[in-house]
């Protein structure tokens, strides 16, 4: 791990469904940096994140956060400094939008007034202030995603673990919410399929393919035409933060 990394993952191996799915992935994220985890469907991105939010166990490897190995953190301590936006999250029926955001602040020790202020700010950011009393399970997919993002922003953990944060969101809320995450200056590890969004937000990226890390660095240095051809079977290139497709998509990837 480089000396300044806030999150360090070293030679991570993970099994899922009885088979090896992540084979020796290593990456470092400096404090306050936004790191993207990219790659095709099934590459192993979520499996890496699941270990970080303790939904899965690593078979081997080392994870270090703020200089301390994961095994030295209590589950409660780990949960206090990390926060995850996950694919499999459901919204409990019977909870209002405000309740869901408030749950994220349980056991933070904030005063009642500060708790209410944080919730109000997060609901405003996510455009949910006028929906706060609605049963969260009746929201649209994008509104549910905004509610989960509001929960995370209200808590504002030191490490944001975001699995496809742009999922279901219209362009306005993709930009508003990720701009806000960036503005907070926290450390972020986020998966993306949209390479333009990845290039816009990420300081650095790791590209995974078939459970392995195949490239890492800045988006401009990493997402080269050769890499895009090899990993995604597309002809294209980044122009600034814009991914431009050039030519036909090959159908022989699998
Ligand atoms: N519990 C499980 N049982 C069986 N297979 C699993 C399980 N969990 C993950 N896998 C497999 O592991 C591989 C990696 O899955 P993962 O969800 O990490 O991919 P991903 O890169 O996040 O993909 P996507 O972009 O489609 O979300 C996939 O082939 C998936 O089917």
TrEMBL record:
Keyword Cytoplasm in annotation: no
Residue ranges occupied by any ABC transporter domain in the UniProt entry: 7-235
GO molecular function terms attached to this record: ATP binding; ATP hydrolysis activity
UniProt keyword annotations, A-Z: ATP-binding, Nucleotide-binding, Translocase, Transport
Domain of life (superkingdom): Bacteria
Coiled-coil regions, chain positions: none
Pfam families membership: ABC_tran
Role summary: Part of the ABC transporter complex HmuTUV involved in hemin import. Responsible for energy coupling to the transport system.
Protein name: Iron complex transport system ATP-binding protein
Organism: Limimaricola pyoseonensis
């Amino acid at each position: 791990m480089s000396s300044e990394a806030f999150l360090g993952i070293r030679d991570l191996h993970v099994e899922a469904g009885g088979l090896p799915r992540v084979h020796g992935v290593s990456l470092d994220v400096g404090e306050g940096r936004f790191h993207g985890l990219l790659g095709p469907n099934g590459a192993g991105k979520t499996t890496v994140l699941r270990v970080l939010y303790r939904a899965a166990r690593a078979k081997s490897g080392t994870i270090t956060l703020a200089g301390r190995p994961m095994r030295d953190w209590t589950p409660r301590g780990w949960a206090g400094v990390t926060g995850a936006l996950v694919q499999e999250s459901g919204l409990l029926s019977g909870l209002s939008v405000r309740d869901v955001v408030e749950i994220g602040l349980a056991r933070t020790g904030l005063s009642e007034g500060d708790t209410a202020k944080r919730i109000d700010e997060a609901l405003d950011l996510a455009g949910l202030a006028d929906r706060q009393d609605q049963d969260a399970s009746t929201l649209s997919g994008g509104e549910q995603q905004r509610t989960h993002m509001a929960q995370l922003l209200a808590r504002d953990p030191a490490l944001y673990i975001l699995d496809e944060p742009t999922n279901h969101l219209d362009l306005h809320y993709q930009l508003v919410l990720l701009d806000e995450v960036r503005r907070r200056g926290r450390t972020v590890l986020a998966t993306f399929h949209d390479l333009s969004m990845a290039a816009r937000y990420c300081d650095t990226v790791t590209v995974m393919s078939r459970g392995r890390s195949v490239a890492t660095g800045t988006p401009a240095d990493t997402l080269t035409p050769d890499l895009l051809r090899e990993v995604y079977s597309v002809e294209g290139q980044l122009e600034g933060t814009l991914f431009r497709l050039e030519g036909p998509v090959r159908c022989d990837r699998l």
